Amino acid sequence: MLALLSRDLKLAIRAGGGFGLGLAFFLIVVTLVPFGVGPEGGILARIAPGILWLGSLLACLLSLDRIFALDFEDGSLDLLATAPVPLEGVVTMKALAHWITTGLPLVVAAPVFGVLLHLEGAAYQWLVISLLLGTPALSVLGTFGAALTVGLKRGGLLLSLLVLPLYVPTLIFGAELIRRGAEGMATQVPLLMLGGITTAVIAVVPFASAAAIRVNLR
Amino acid sequence: MTMLSVDNLAVTRGGLAVLEGLSFGLDAGHALVLRGPNGIGKTTLLRTLAGLQPALHGSISMPPESMAYAGHSDGLKSTLTVTENLDFWASVYGTDSIEGALDRMNLRGLTERPAMSLSAGQKRRLGLARLLVTGRPVWVLDEPTVSLDAASVALFADAVRAHLAQGGAALMATHIDLGIPEAAILDLAPFKAKPPEQGGISGAFDEAFI
Lengths: 218, 210
Fold this sequence. Notes:
The complex is a heterodimer of chains A (about 220) and B (about 210). Chain A has about 220 residues and is mostly helical. Chain A has 10 helices and no strands.
């Protein structure tokens, strides 16, 4: 299992692996918003939590289709399915590798991007906490969409349509957590909801993803 | 000792039965070559035996954790080196050494090359070396010698013989001569599934949705 994780991380870092792609996309989204909205600090600061979360969702989405598609194309998904590792474990490790290469860099870089959007000073710690709690759910839910579309040619658009609705609860509570933090209100409820959603997703979704892969490999 | 036995098996592709009434056994130390025209269901049969798809009918019995499957594609990661590719599969299967496999498949001089810079035949040799590091007794191989030159086919035949000598077994589907004349041959043509209107088994078109 750990061998799979280290293989996937190695592949992400090597040529064509797409490491940093999500981060660069996030930077561009966050930079474009002030151009579209205008430079008024008041408006930007108010929409900053939502923009930062939306940017994270899209950045995460960008690299989802390669989670299983590359392994399917070169035949290693067949071999992994017949190997003595449970497919649920394979899915979990792939989600973890995706999070490390996409979600974690976003968590680290988000405070810098917050500056571009005039985010309130008190909100920075909540920004990091909400992304840290929420982005694992994005990766794990993403494996489900990727598993459903694995045999399809150019299934990327379908994947987005399948996965984005599943991201709604995480988006709502993630952005709410930052907004409440910025205004100095109690943050316990969105914090617990966000954490609850992520743990539930990690506990349940790998089984669904593994089942979807089994059907698609037939 | 019987490593694999198949009884009255029927397999489907795309919801249609392709083979039916198939029974055979494979003993330790023996190799069996599957032959038959294109589309007869050789690959489908091998994928069913490997557990990648359910059988329509009949039973497959083999000791647990005994099979290593190799399909049409080698499952290599093009940006990883030969050593990294093999190391990965060795740790997935919990075996320790890849040295024997490197020597046996004549990959010693290529260890640090990324898989993308290998020729088609070298990739195939690396794919076959993966079988050696699995340490599994039953090999299920789909067209193992495609794109291999004569010398590499001989290497492959030697590897299979050594595997059989150690008590392993091999089931191979191919059109090409494998250089293993002692292997038994099973022609699949007589087991071609009859259409349902002639008394054959009907496959379930909606199997993916069950």
